[in-house]
Protein backbone atom coordinates (compact mmCIF):
# COMPACT_ATOMS: atom_id res chain seq x y z
CA UNK A 1 0.00 0.00 0.00
CA UNK A 2 1.89 3.04 -1.32
CA UNK A 3 1.25 6.44 0.26
CA UNK A 4 2.59 9.82 -0.79
CA UNK A 5 4.54 11.83 1.79
CA UNK A 6 3.89 15.53 1.04
CA UNK A 7 6.96 17.10 2.68
CA UNK A 8 9.41 14.33 1.75
CA UNK A 9 7.90 14.30 -1.79
CA UNK A 10 8.24 10.51 -2.17
CA UNK A 11 5.85 7.52 -2.19
CA UNK A 12 6.54 4.78 0.36
CA UNK A 13 4.82 1.56 1.45
CA UNK A 14 2.75 2.33 4.59
CA UNK A 15 3.31 -1.14 6.10
CA UNK A 16 7.07 -0.76 5.69
CA UNK A 17 6.94 2.45 7.75
CA UNK A 18 4.73 0.86 10.42
CA UNK A 19 7.15 -2.07 10.59
CA UNK A 20 10.20 0.23 10.93
CA UNK A 21 8.41 2.19 13.67
CA UNK A 22 7.59 -1.05 15.48
CA UNK A 23 11.14 -2.38 15.20
CA UNK A 24 12.67 0.80 16.61
CA UNK A 25 9.99 0.93 19.33
CA UNK A 26 11.00 -2.58 20.42
CA UNK A 27 14.66 -1.46 20.61
CA UNK A 28 13.64 1.63 22.55
CA UNK A 29 11.82 -0.47 25.14
CA UNK A 30 14.59 -3.07 25.38
CA UNK A 31 17.63 -0.80 25.59
CA UNK A 32 16.28 2.53 26.85
CA UNK A 33 17.50 4.32 23.73
CA UNK A 34 15.19 6.59 21.74
CA UNK A 35 15.98 4.49 18.67
CA UNK A 36 16.48 7.51 16.43
CA UNK A 37 20.11 6.66 15.72
CA UNK A 38 18.89 3.52 13.93
CA UNK A 39 15.60 4.83 12.53
CA UNK A 40 17.00 7.93 10.83
CA UNK A 41 19.58 6.01 8.73
CA UNK A 42 16.91 3.38 7.93
CA UNK A 43 14.74 6.20 6.58
CA UNK A 44 17.66 7.41 4.40
CA UNK A 45 17.89 3.87 3.01
CA UNK A 46 14.23 3.76 1.91
CA UNK A 47 14.62 7.08 0.08
CA UNK A 48 13.47 9.72 2.60
CA UNK A 49 15.57 12.93 2.21
CA UNK A 50 17.93 13.29 5.25
CA UNK A 51 16.63 16.76 6.23
CA UNK A 52 13.06 15.39 6.46
CA UNK A 53 14.16 12.13 8.13
CA UNK A 54 15.99 14.00 10.91
CA UNK A 55 13.19 16.44 11.73
CA UNK A 56 10.38 13.87 11.51
CA UNK A 57 12.22 11.17 13.43
CA UNK A 58 12.59 13.54 16.40
CA UNK A 59 8.78 13.47 16.47
CA UNK A 60 8.57 9.69 16.63
CA UNK A 61 11.14 9.53 19.45
CA UNK A 62 8.81 11.68 21.58
CA UNK A 63 6.10 9.04 21.36
CA UNK A 64 8.21 5.94 21.90
CA UNK A 65 10.10 7.62 24.78
CA UNK A 66 6.84 8.72 26.40
CA UNK A 67 5.55 5.18 26.19
CA UNK A 68 8.83 3.92 27.75
CA UNK A 69 8.80 6.52 30.54
CA UNK A 70 5.31 5.47 31.67
CA UNK A 71 6.63 1.95 32.25
CA UNK A 72 9.58 3.35 34.29
CA UNK A 73 7.44 5.74 36.36
CA UNK A 74 5.39 2.73 37.50
CA UNK A 75 8.63 1.09 38.69
CA UNK A 76 9.78 4.37 40.34
CA UNK A 77 13.01 4.33 38.33
CA UNK A 78 12.99 7.96 37.14
CA UNK A 79 15.07 10.64 38.88
CA UNK A 80 12.88 13.65 38.03
CA UNK A 81 15.18 16.21 39.61
CA UNK A 82 18.15 15.00 37.53
CA UNK A 83 15.82 14.89 34.50
CA UNK A 84 14.96 18.60 34.86
CA UNK A 85 18.64 19.60 35.21
CA UNK A 86 19.56 17.61 32.08
CA UNK A 87 16.59 19.21 30.35
CA UNK A 88 17.84 22.78 30.91
CA UNK A 89 21.01 21.96 28.95
CA UNK A 90 19.05 19.93 26.40
CA UNK A 91 16.70 22.77 25.42
CA UNK A 92 19.58 25.22 24.92
CA UNK A 93 21.46 22.59 22.86
CA UNK A 94 18.40 21.85 20.69
CA UNK A 95 17.91 25.57 19.91
CA UNK A 96 21.59 25.86 18.89
CA UNK A 97 21.43 22.67 16.81
CA UNK A 98 18.38 23.81 14.84
CA UNK A 99 20.16 27.08 13.96
CA UNK A 100 23.23 25.16 12.70
CA UNK A 101 20.93 22.84 10.73
CA UNK A 102 19.19 25.83 9.08
CA UNK A 103 22.53 27.40 8.08
CA UNK A 104 23.80 24.14 6.55
CA UNK A 105 20.51 23.68 4.72
CA UNK A 106 20.97 27.11 3.15
CA UNK A 107 24.45 26.03 2.01
CA UNK A 108 23.04 22.79 0.60
CA UNK A 109 25.36 20.65 2.73
CA UNK A 110 22.93 19.29 5.33
CA UNK A 111 22.40 15.83 3.77
CA UNK A 112 26.11 15.13 3.54
CA UNK A 113 26.80 16.41 7.07
CA UNK A 114 24.02 14.31 8.62
CA UNK A 115 25.22 11.14 6.89
CA UNK A 116 28.87 11.74 7.84
CA UNK A 117 27.86 12.39 11.47
CA UNK A 118 25.98 9.09 11.48
CA UNK A 119 28.86 7.06 10.07
CA UNK A 120 31.24 8.57 12.62
CA UNK A 121 28.95 8.23 15.64
CA UNK A 122 27.57 4.78 14.87
CA UNK A 123 31.06 3.45 14.16
CA UNK A 124 32.51 4.73 17.44
CA UNK A 125 29.50 3.89 19.62
CA UNK A 126 28.93 0.48 18.03
CA UNK A 127 32.61 -0.47 18.35
CA UNK A 128 32.86 0.59 22.00
CA UNK A 129 29.59 -1.15 22.91
CA UNK A 130 30.66 -4.34 21.17
CA UNK A 131 34.00 -4.51 23.03
CA UNK A 132 32.39 -3.64 26.36
CA UNK A 133 29.67 -6.31 25.89
CA UNK A 134 32.24 -8.98 24.96
CA UNK A 135 34.20 -8.19 28.14
CA UNK A 136 31.01 -8.34 30.22
CA UNK A 137 30.06 -11.74 28.72
CA UNK A 138 33.58 -13.07 29.32
CA UNK A 139 33.48 -11.91 32.95
CA UNK A 140 30.03 -13.36 33.59
CA UNK A 141 31.18 -16.76 32.27
CA UNK A 142 34.34 -16.88 34.36
CA UNK A 143 32.68 -15.30 37.40
CA UNK A 144 32.59 -17.09 40.69
CA UNK A 145 30.69 -15.16 43.36
CA UNK A 146 29.09 -11.87 42.30
CA UNK A 147 31.56 -8.98 42.68
CA UNK A 148 30.89 -6.39 45.37
CA UNK A 149 29.49 -3.12 44.10
CA UNK A 150 32.28 -0.58 44.00
CA UNK A 151 31.58 2.85 45.44
CA UNK A 152 32.02 5.67 42.94
CA UNK A 153 35.52 7.12 43.08
CA UNK A 154 35.89 10.84 43.74
CA UNK A 155 36.68 12.66 40.50
CA UNK A 156 37.11 16.22 39.24
CA UNK A 157 33.31 16.43 39.06
CA UNK A 158 33.13 16.36 42.88
CA UNK A 159 35.26 19.53 43.04
CA UNK A 160 32.84 21.62 40.94
CA UNK A 161 30.57 24.25 42.57
CA UNK A 162 26.72 24.55 42.47
CA UNK A 163 26.07 21.21 44.13
CA UNK A 164 22.61 19.72 44.42
CA UNK A 165 21.10 16.64 46.06
CA UNK A 166 19.58 14.04 43.74
CA UNK A 167 17.77 11.74 46.17
CA UNK A 168 16.50 9.10 43.73
CA UNK A 169 20.04 8.62 42.38
CA UNK A 170 21.65 8.97 45.82
CA UNK A 171 24.00 11.69 44.51
CA UNK A 172 25.22 15.07 45.75
CA UNK A 173 27.05 16.59 42.78
CA UNK A 174 27.44 19.85 40.85
CA UNK A 175 24.70 20.65 38.32
CA UNK A 176 27.33 21.72 35.73
CA UNK A 177 28.14 18.23 34.29
CA UNK A 178 24.46 17.21 33.85
CA UNK A 179 23.70 20.55 32.15
CA UNK A 180 26.66 20.04 29.76
CA UNK A 181 25.62 16.43 29.00
CA UNK A 182 22.10 17.73 28.28
CA UNK A 183 23.46 20.51 26.05
CA UNK A 184 25.49 18.09 23.93
CA UNK A 185 22.55 15.70 23.56
CA UNK A 186 20.25 18.61 22.62
CA UNK A 187 22.56 19.62 19.74
CA UNK A 188 22.61 15.98 18.53
CA UNK A 189 18.81 15.75 18.76
CA UNK A 190 18.44 18.74 16.44
CA UNK A 191 21.17 17.92 13.89
CA UNK A 192 20.89 14.12 13.77
CA UNK A 193 17.27 13.48 14.78
CA UNK A 194 18.35 11.25 17.66
CA UNK A 195 17.21 11.16 21.27
CA UNK A 196 20.85 10.88 22.28
CA UNK A 197 20.18 8.02 24.70
CA UNK A 198 23.15 6.11 23.27
CA UNK A 199 25.42 8.90 24.53
CA UNK A 200 23.41 10.02 27.53
CA UNK A 201 23.06 6.58 29.14
CA UNK A 202 26.84 5.88 29.29
CA UNK A 203 27.51 9.51 30.35
CA UNK A 204 25.03 9.23 33.22
CA UNK A 205 26.56 5.97 34.44
CA UNK A 206 30.28 6.67 34.01
CA UNK A 207 30.48 10.46 34.27
CA UNK A 208 27.73 11.34 36.75
CA UNK A 209 27.89 8.04 38.65
CA UNK A 210 24.14 7.40 38.58
CA UNK A 211 22.84 3.93 39.49
CA UNK A 212 22.04 1.93 36.33
CA UNK A 213 18.45 1.20 37.37
CA UNK A 214 17.40 4.89 37.27
CA UNK A 215 19.45 5.86 34.21
CA UNK A 216 17.15 4.53 31.47
CA UNK A 217 13.95 6.10 32.81
CA UNK A 218 15.65 9.45 33.53
CA UNK A 219 17.25 9.51 30.08
CA UNK A 220 13.90 8.83 28.37
CA UNK A 221 12.20 11.54 30.48
CA UNK A 222 14.68 14.18 29.28
CA UNK A 223 14.57 12.91 25.68
CA UNK A 224 10.78 13.48 25.44
CA UNK A 225 11.02 17.23 26.03
CA UNK A 226 14.22 17.88 24.09
CA UNK A 227 13.05 16.04 20.96
CA UNK A 228 9.57 17.62 21.15
CA UNK A 229 11.23 21.05 21.32
CA UNK A 230 13.61 20.21 18.43
CA UNK A 231 10.69 18.98 16.29
CA UNK A 232 8.73 22.17 16.97
CA UNK A 233 11.70 24.33 15.97
CA UNK A 234 12.33 22.26 12.82
CA UNK A 235 8.66 22.54 11.85
CA UNK A 236 8.61 26.33 12.27
CA UNK A 237 12.10 27.26 10.96
CA UNK A 238 13.09 24.55 8.45
CA UNK A 239 9.62 23.20 7.46
CA UNK A 240 10.98 19.67 7.28
CA UNK A 241 8.52 17.75 9.50
CA UNK A 242 6.35 15.33 7.48
CA UNK A 243 3.26 14.61 9.58
CA UNK A 244 2.08 11.63 7.52
CA UNK A 245 5.45 9.95 7.97
CA UNK A 246 5.50 10.91 11.67
CA UNK A 247 2.07 9.38 12.41
CA UNK A 248 2.92 6.04 10.77
CA UNK A 249 6.25 5.77 12.60
CA UNK A 250 4.56 6.86 15.82
CA UNK A 251 1.87 4.14 15.75
CA UNK A 252 4.49 1.45 15.13
CA UNK A 253 6.81 2.92 17.76
CA UNK A 254 4.32 3.03 20.63
CA UNK A 255 3.24 -0.58 20.10
CA UNK A 256 6.86 -1.70 19.70
CA UNK A 257 8.06 0.07 22.89
CA UNK A 258 5.60 -1.85 25.05
CA UNK A 259 6.71 -5.18 23.53
CA UNK A 260 10.38 -4.20 23.89
CA UNK A 261 10.03 -3.36 27.59
CA UNK A 262 8.68 -6.89 28.21
CA UNK A 263 11.44 -8.60 26.18
CA UNK A 264 14.12 -6.47 27.88
CA UNK A 265 13.11 -7.72 31.34
CA UNK A 266 13.53 -11.37 30.27
CA UNK A 267 16.91 -11.11 28.51
CA UNK A 268 20.41 -10.88 29.96
CA UNK A 269 21.85 -7.34 29.91
CA UNK A 270 25.09 -8.48 28.21
CA UNK A 271 23.23 -10.28 25.41
CA UNK A 272 21.03 -7.21 24.86
CA UNK A 273 24.02 -4.90 24.57
CA UNK A 274 25.92 -7.08 22.13
CA UNK A 275 22.80 -7.38 19.93
CA UNK A 276 22.40 -3.62 19.88
CA UNK A 277 26.12 -3.14 19.10
CA UNK A 278 25.92 -5.52 16.11
CA UNK A 279 22.86 -3.67 14.79
CA UNK A 280 24.55 -0.29 15.16
CA UNK A 281 27.69 -1.48 13.32
CA UNK A 282 25.58 -3.00 10.51
CA UNK A 283 23.73 0.30 9.92
CA UNK A 284 27.04 2.20 10.09
CA UNK A 285 28.57 -0.10 7.46
CA UNK A 286 25.62 0.33 5.10
CA UNK A 287 25.71 4.15 5.41
CA UNK A 288 29.49 4.25 4.87
CA UNK A 289 29.11 2.10 1.75
CA UNK A 290 26.40 4.38 0.38
CA UNK A 291 28.64 7.41 0.84
CA UNK A 292 31.61 5.70 -0.81
CA UNK A 293 29.71 4.13 -3.71
CA UNK A 294 27.82 7.27 -4.77
CA UNK A 295 30.35 10.07 -5.21
CA UNK A 296 28.15 11.70 -7.88
CA UNK A 297 25.60 12.51 -5.16
CA UNK A 298 28.03 14.90 -3.49
CA UNK A 299 28.01 17.11 -6.57
CA UNK A 300 24.24 17.00 -6.89
CA UNK A 301 23.91 18.08 -3.24
CA UNK A 302 26.31 20.95 -3.86
CA UNK A 303 24.53 22.08 -7.02
CA UNK A 304 21.08 21.78 -5.41
CA UNK A 305 22.32 24.07 -2.66
CA UNK A 306 23.66 26.50 -5.26
CA UNK A 307 20.20 27.04 -6.73
CA UNK A 308 18.42 27.16 -3.34
UniProtKB/TrEMBL annotation:
What's the protein's topology in the membrane? Multi-pass membrane protein
Superkingdom as given in the UniProt entry: Bacteria
Its main localization is membrane
Residues crossing the lipid bilayer are 12-39, 84-104, 116-137, 179-207, 214-233, 239-260, 272-289
Q: Which GO terms describe its cellular component?
A: plasma membrane
The record's listing under Pfam families reads: TauE
Annotated InterPro entries: TM_pro_TauE-like (IPR002781), TSUP/Inactive_protease-like (IPR051598)
Q: Does this entry carry the keyword Nucleus?
A: no
Which compartment or compartments is the protein found in? Cell membrane; Membrane
Enumerate the UniProt keywords alphabetically. Cell membrane, Membrane, Transmembrane, Transmembrane helix
Which PANTHER family would you find in this protein's record?
MEMBRANE TRANSPORTER PROTEIN MJ0441-RELATED (PTHR43701), MEMBRANE TRANSPORTER PROTEIN YTNM-RELATED (PTHR43701:SF12)
UniProt lists the family membership as follows: Belongs to the 4-toluene sulfonate uptake permease (TSUP) (TC 2.A.102) family.
Protein name (database record) = Probable membrane transporter protein
Question: What does the record give as the organism's lineage?
Answer: Bacteria, Pseudomonadati, Pseudomonadota, Alphaproteobacteria, Rhodobacterales
